[in-house]
Amino acid sequence: MDEAQDLAAAHWRMLRAIVPGVEARLARAGIPATRARDTLHITWHGTPAPSSAPPH
Question: How does pLDDT run across 7-52, given as a tens digit for each residue?
């Protein structure tokens, strides 16, 4: 995993730690975890998350 992938994965872990049940909430809203991860990365960095970064 390169630095960008590590960063994307770290941000996703941080979101999961801050928002209990975030994956279930996203699922109920019909938002795939990968889309949420990419949106989070774009919000913070202005670029999409690397597609191979794991959503956890």
Answer: 777 878 888 888 888 888 888 888 787 777 777 666 666 666 665 4
In a domain, 52, yes or no: no
Domain that holds residue 28: 3-45
- 56 domain residue, yes or no: no
pTM above 0.85, yes or no: no
Token representation of residue 23: 């994956």
H-assigned helices in 1-56? 3-18, 22-28, 33-45
Burial (CB count <10 Å: 0-12, 13-18, 19+), residue 38: buried
Residue 26 resides in a domain? yes
